[in-house]
Write a structure and sequence with these properties.
By secondary structure, the chain is α/β, with parallel strands linked by helices. The chain is built from six helices and 16 strands. Bound molecules: ribulose-5-phosphate.
Length: 223
C-alpha cells in the first residue's frame, strides 16, 4: 500500500492551480484523491471530471469540485491507475471495471499520467486478464467471437450476478496469458459487434509514476 501512496504523492506534485483534471479510478487514485483533497484545503483551486461514480463520490467527500464533462471543453491533466504497464508505456486497464469512462477521460487530456506500484510493471501485457466492456444483449455471442482470438472470456461476476458497469454494460475478462500484438488485438476486438471498448490503452501516456515502498520513480518515455 505504501508504494501506491508514494506514487500518488508524487503525482499530486504535477497538479497546478486552475487545472481541470481527469480523475481516474482504482485504489491508487483513491489515495491520490485524499492527497489532492489536502491541497484543496490548503487553497488549491481545481476541478475534476470523474471516470466513475465511485471516484466522483470520493472526490466530493475530499472537498474536490467535480464537474460534468459537458461543462468543460478540455482537460489539462488526467491521472489514472493501471493493471499492467509494459516497457513501451502501453497499458492494460479496467480491473476496477471503469475502463470505458477512463479511456474517454484519459484521451481528452493534454497530459495523461499513470500512477502504479512496481508490481504493475511487466515485460509483456496479458498476464492480467484483459477487461472488455460489452453490450449485455447477446453477450454470449460476443463472448464466443472474442474467444476465437485464443482466450477464455469470463463474464465478470458481482455476488452471483453479472457485474454491471457505470454505463450499464458487462465486462468479459479475457485470459490471453500474453498479448503479442496489442494494437492488432485491440483493433480486432473493437471491430466485433457487441464490443464497446477494450482495456488496452495504447500510445496514450508518456509519463508513468512507479511507486516503491521508499519513494517513486518518474518514467518519461522521451528521456
Ligand atoms: O483500470 C482501473 C479501474 O478500471 C484501475 O486504474 C486499475 O485497475 C488499477 O487499480 P489499482 O490502483 O487499484 O491497482
Amino acid at each position: 500500500m505504501n508504494a501506491k501512496m508514494e506514487a500518488a504523492r508524487k503525482a499530486v506534485e504535477y497538479v497546478e492551480d486552475g487545472m481541470v483534471l481527469g480523475l481516474g479510478s482504482g485504489s491508487t487514485i483513491n489515495i491520490l484523491l485524499e492527497k489532492l483533497g489536502d491541497r484543496v484545503q490548503e487553497g488549491l483551486n481545481i476541478k475534476g471530471v470523474s471516470s466513475s461514480v465511485k471516484t466522483e463520490k470520493l472526490a466530493r467527500g475530499h472537498g474536490i469540485e467535480v464537474t460534468d464533462f459537458s461543462q468543460v471543453s478540455r482537460l489539462d491533466l488526467a491521472i489514472d491507475g493501471a493493471d499492467e504497464v509494459d516497457p513501451n508505456f502501453q497499458l492494460l486497464k479496467g480491473g476496477g471495471g471503469s475502463l470505458l469512462r477512463e479511456k474517454i477521460v484519459d484521451v481528452a487530456a493534454d497530459q495523461f499520467i499513470v500512477v502504479a506500484d512496481e508490481s504493475k510493471q511487466v515485460e509483456q501485457l496479458g498476464a492480467f486478464p484483459l477487461p472488455v466492456e460489452v453490450v449485455p444483449f447477446g453477450w454470449e455471442q460476443t463472448q464466443a467471437r472474442i474467444e476465437a482470438f485464443g482466450c477464455e472470456a469470463v463474464l465478470r461476476d458481482s455476488g452471483g450476478k453479472p457485474f454491471v458497469t457505470d454505463n450499464g454494460l458487462y465486462i468479459l475478462d479475457c485470459h490471453f496469458g500474453k498479448i503479442d500484438r496489442p494494437e492488432w488485438l485491440h483493433n480486432q476486438l473493437k471491430s466485433l459487434v457487441g464490443v464497446v471498448e477494450t482495456g488496452l490503452f495504447l500510445d496514450m501516456t508518456d509519463l508513468v509514476i512507479v511507486g516503491r515502498d521508499d519513494g517513486a520513480d518518474v518514467l518519461d518515455k522521451h528521456s
